[in-house]
Amino acid sequence: MTELQHDTREDxxxxxxxxxxxIGEPVSTRxxxxxxELTARQKRDLQDVRKRxxxxxxxxxxxxxxxxxxxxxxxxxxxxxxxxxAVRCWxxxxxxxxxxxxxxxxxxxxxxxxxxxxxxTLERQFRQSKRSIVYxxxxxxxxxxxxFQIGQSKSARNVVLNALPEWLIDEAVDVAKEGVREKVExxxxxxxxxxxxxxxxxxxxxxxxxxxxxxTKCGKAKREAxxxxxxxxxxxxxxxxxxxxxxxxxxxxxxxxxxxxxxAAKARDVAAKDRAALKPExxxxxxxxxxxxxxxxxxxxEFSPDQEFAQAIxxxxxxxxxxxxxxxxxxxxxxxxxxxxxxxxxxxxxRAGKPRQKE
Length: 359
What we know:
Layout: H1 3-11, H2 16-23, H3 29-41, H4 46-60, E1 65-68, E2 75-78, H5 80-90, E3 93-97, E4 101-102, E5 106-115, E6 121-129, H6 140-163, H7 166-191, H8 193-206, H9 211-218, H10 228-243, H11 248-251, H12 260-273, H13 280-283, H14 289-296, H15 305-315, H16 319-331, H17 337-353
Helix pairs in contact: 4-5, 4-7, 5-6, 7-8, 7-10, 8-10, 12-14, 15-16, 16-17
């Protein structure tokens, strides 16, 4: 052992107390001590990490990536599966779910990454809407479960991708794409590119993605113009949808498709004027069904204009938004000075007492 190696190992946390000092809080003996003892004996080898992750990525294929956005705005990124593979190969680390925060319309997940070798700690939050659209013939309980699982997975994915070296993740995704490209090219040699395009397009259409949105995402006017690179990216998207990691509407956005929040607002407006007219077709299309159901289950009194203005003030995320909602209420003949004052005071107290979050 060289002097340099000896100094490096002495700098590593070798006891629970030292590790707690590094991360600034107590930890569970059962969870960490054995891992720290291993860390003290075996230092991470980046070349070995890279080699093992590349091997796993090549086998993972289209499960490692997907793309979102469309046309010039289309980008690609790593999936939760490649993030978890990277954690396994990185070793001597822990990804933990912190206490869940829940509001009336969303779950807020907090995931923590801890490098047991260096003491580096990172926390990231992810907000998962309780009203996000879940495709498929599931009952409401199952849809709620799926939303929760998606949020939990994305939270863990995000903290890992922010904690581990970007070059490592990028290389893993590139290797996975190369493996998929090789499969696609072999298929094209045997069956032709038209057959390869037809296979992935049919799969996406079956997953509720219209062909025009597929072409728009790739920046093409006709399916005959789709390239091998397009097929590789689309296969990653199809896999993400099939696995439930992403929603089709997020990966293949439509410029004229109304957002759920817009549909809910329109449903409230229709109900306030004429509850009998509250039907999916009066709000938009079938995508509006959840918004209509949500409004229909509430009492007629909840649609009074004054309560709508009051809710807008309560939901405001900034002082400017709260003041704008109060001004609109005042103009409509429903002045709410006390509610506005209470909201602004609550925001001030929240700012003053809010702890600084880790970057």
